[in-house]
Design the sequence.
């Protein structure tokens, strides 16, 4: 049996269902099948294109040696040799970035022109979400300002005019927009009308979107994560939403375990009674880490304390020619 297939089988065999109706073992198997059909492109192949990109022309000219170092550290051979390298990496940046730092500077030292692993959309995807920057809807939690950059894997250039959609749980591990056993209070049918921690934004000419949200909570069977979907052919509707059941990318972002541990000490996260799954035990994260680094880089906005909020950023490459059908658990009607 192929080692990768064996790895996925062993993971799936040892996993139980998280939210009722959410079969994580099946989700891992589906993700593995998707990734097996997609080629992986290393940084080495595109290093020259990265150096010529328009983003670098506007960036600080200090990063050549840094990029080469990252290329060496993040090579395909290195990733296959150590499945947990990204999991054990500290993604807290030493940069003094603030909310006023231009995205061109934040992403200037980015060398991630790697095809981001495809995973399933999961059981809590809702189509027809609002086009907006602020996703909080006054939901309590640690402020997270998230910058996302989308690159074309074939050119290593930004993907403009694409719609990036994100969704994640609240501080106590509950998704908005869906009523299901295990997803909060099953008797609360009004949850289908709630939209917290969900939204869509079109990418700029730099392939960037920015969201104001809160740090996600966790639920039984999964580590803390954020879902992301990229639509390259979606059209904005008159009601301020998009509706598109195809996607060029479906993925997930993750967060350092040390950061998760810090946040869970804060209210209202400390009131979450669901079992916390460690990054090292999450099968979908371990899959994604074999082919890339799916972790959000971050800085504290409150000096030396996490309680002041976070600025996070991540960049990834997609195949813009991919048109994947996705399944929604519901549809939001504004």
Sequence:
């Amino acid at each position: 049996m192929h080692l990768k297939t064996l790895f996925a089988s062993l993971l799936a065999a040892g996993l139980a269902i998280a939210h009722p109706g959410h079969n994580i073992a099946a989700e891992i198997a589906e993700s593995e099948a998707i990734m097996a059909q997609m080629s992986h492109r290393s940084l080495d192949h595109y290093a020259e294109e990265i150096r010529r990109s328009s983003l670098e022309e506007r960036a600080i000219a200090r990063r050549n040696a840094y990029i080469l170092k990252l290329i060496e550290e993040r090579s395909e051979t290195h990733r296959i040799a150590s499945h947990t390298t990204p999991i054990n990496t500290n993604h807290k940046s030493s940069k003094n970035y603030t909310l006023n730092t231009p995205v061109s500077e934040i992403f200037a030292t980015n060398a991630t022109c790697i095809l981001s692993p495809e995973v399933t959309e999961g059981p809590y995807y809702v189509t027809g979400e609002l086009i907006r920057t602020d996703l909080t809807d006054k939901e309590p939690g640690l402020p997270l300002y998230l910058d996302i950059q989308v690159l074309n894997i074939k050119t290593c250039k930004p993907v403009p005019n694409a719609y990036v959609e994100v969704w994640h749980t609240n501080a106590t591990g509950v998704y908005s927009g869906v009523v299901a056993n295990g997803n909060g209070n099953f008797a609360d049918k009004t949850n289908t009308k709630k939209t917290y921690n969900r939204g869509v934004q079109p990418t700029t000419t730099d392939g960037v979107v920015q969201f104001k949200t809160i740090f996600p909570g966790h639920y039984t069977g999964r580590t803390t994560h954020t879902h992301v979907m990229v639509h390259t052919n979606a059209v904005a509707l008159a009601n301020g939403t998009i509706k598109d059941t195809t996607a060029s990318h479906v993925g997930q972002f993750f967060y350092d375990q040390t950061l998760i541990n810090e946040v869970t000490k804060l209210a209202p996260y400390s009131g979450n009674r669901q079992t916390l799954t460690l990054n090292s035990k999450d099968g979908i994260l371990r899959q994604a880490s074999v082919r890339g680094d799916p972790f959000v880089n971050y800085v504290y906005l409150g000096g030396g304390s996490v309680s002041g909020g976070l600025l996070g950023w991540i960049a990834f490459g997609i195949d813009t020619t991919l048109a994947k059908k996705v399944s929604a658990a519901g549809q939001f009607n504004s």
In short: The chain has ten helices and twelve strands.
